[in-house]
Design a protein that fits this description.
The chain has 428 residues and is α+β, with helices and mostly antiparallel strands. The protein contains 14 helices and 18 strands. Helix 3 packs antiparallel against helix 4, helix 5 crosses helix 13 and helix 7 crosses helix 14. The structure holds one RNA strand of 88 nucleotides.
Length: 428
Amino acid sequence: MLDIKFIRQNIEIVKKAIQNKNIDLDLDKLLAADERKRHVMTELEQLRSEQNKKSKGPQSPENIEESRGLKEKIKLLEKELEIVDKEFNDLALKVPNIPSEDTPVGKDESENKVLRQVGKITQFNFKPKEHWELGQELDVIDMERAAKVSGARFAYRKGAIPLLELAVINYTFSVLTNEDTLKKIGKKAKLDISSKPFRPIFPPVMIKPEVFQKMDRLEPKEERYHIPSDDIYLIGSAEHTIGSMHMDETLKEEEMPVRYIGFSTAFRREAGSYGKDVKGLIRMHQFDKLEIESFTLPENSQKEQDFIVAIIEHMVQDLGLPYQVLIMCTGDMGKQDARHIDIEIWMPGQNKYRETHTSDLMTDFQARRLNTKVKRVSGESQYVHMNDATAFALSRIVVAIMENYQTEKGTIKIPKVLQKYTGFKEIK
RNA sequence: GGAGGCGUCGCAUAGUGGUCUAGUGCGCUCGCUUGGAAAGCGAGUAUACCGCAAGGUAUCGAGCGUUCGAAUCGCUCCGCCUCCGCCA
């Protein structure tokens, strides 16, 4: 959500963001609702003030009679306020975050901009296989039995794959919790930034509807798993329960940035992606993910995102995988995003780059409704800025490793940095 | 799942229908005092919204209700604690 005061004072900027992000919203309607709401509020406050004055001390019968009249008027106005407020809220929720200056304006994904490509595309002197073929042949991925037991888009990962995933988890935690490593990454990226380590978090995987809404992640609801008996949702990312953990809290400037590296299972209905990526681990109803979440001072949030992207690139390079970095255009970025950066790793079996990481700079868009603030040394309170990003989506990084590290014999080498965690060098 | 208790200003507590515009203590900030500090004394010390301001309104876990008037009474929900049951 944007600050309504900001909206009032920057109507043209907000209108442009609405247009560039292809959002169906008439801002003038919101402004009208805002004015009506304030008008009703003022009137209501005057009445309440009168009521408060009248209800002090012992009451005469005439006084009580007058107060009764006031009570009726207040009731009516409260009803009216409720209606106006709902209208205002419904419209205000649709207002998108303002894209950063370096975000390209564009209609759809075709206008996303490749910022850089790193690493040489993996070359083979044989025809590389797709990961599900390899998985089946090596008996480490079993989609058929998963379909029998749970349905489409589920998998049993077996044998070496769970060990590989655990290795990625351990490796990621070792990078993100090591201050020296972070310092080096920041220096290499020429960022003047704190090297404070990320704190490991295993968050809950279920979330209350109202908190989900405050994260602005409940919609589209068709994408979410809902458990009606308890009116609770399964998270689609650890972001959902880590980003909200400081709801209604005021952090101290001295403890900023507050950085987390979370791990959780993510649940997605994948509504509307019928027929897309039906084979293999690319698009699953359930997958495990390492997620970065960071709370910063407003002036540091953009740099924080640059740092997070640098960390991800460092890790992808460590794994020896070729990738490209994209900045998403206005038409393809999320409503909540100020800047949205994706990393796509080359998948030889599919012969293309596939999205493996997403980094979202939210500025104060989520913090405003979550009511997460920071008390500055000056004494002033401000909403914190938030960043979230994929550290690794385990299933997709497994795909990338399998396809890039396959051999002609149909075995899969383990990237060097992971070998000390897996305890083996090859899946065969 | 059952029974009971509890949720008040950063923390601890007082408050059982109007005097609560929420008291007190601790903590914190500033000042006085001091060579400096402690103690002591004095002042200040939640957030949001509206307003140029004076000021007003809301918030005592959340919501709904009773009442002329609710921190206080009733209902629902959430959370915490104790005991029992069950369970990994």
